[in-house]
Design a protein that fits this description.
Layout: E1 7-10, E2 16-20, E3 25-29, H1 42-59
Antiparallel strand pairs: 1-2, 2-3
Length: 60
């Protein structure tokens, strides 16, 4: 069986779709880019993902 890998697609202003098979997870982050100043950095998305993983670890 092939190794499982994560897939990441990134769009303008902070739109992300991240598929993480080993965690049975699909993460979608959208931003209202029609409003000026509404952008999210890759670091912010990484922080949010880490918070989700930390919360999952606490609940297990």
């Amino acid at each position: 069986m092939p190794a499982r890998t994560s897939l990441i697609e990134r769009g303008a202003g902070g739109h992300y779709v991240i598929i993480i098979p080993e965690h049975d997870m699909v993460f979608v982050h959208r931003v209202n880019t029609y409003l000026r100043g509404h952008q999210v950095s890759g670091a912010d998305v990484g922080t949010l993902l880490q918070m989700i993983f930390d919360a999952k670890a606490v609940s297990n």
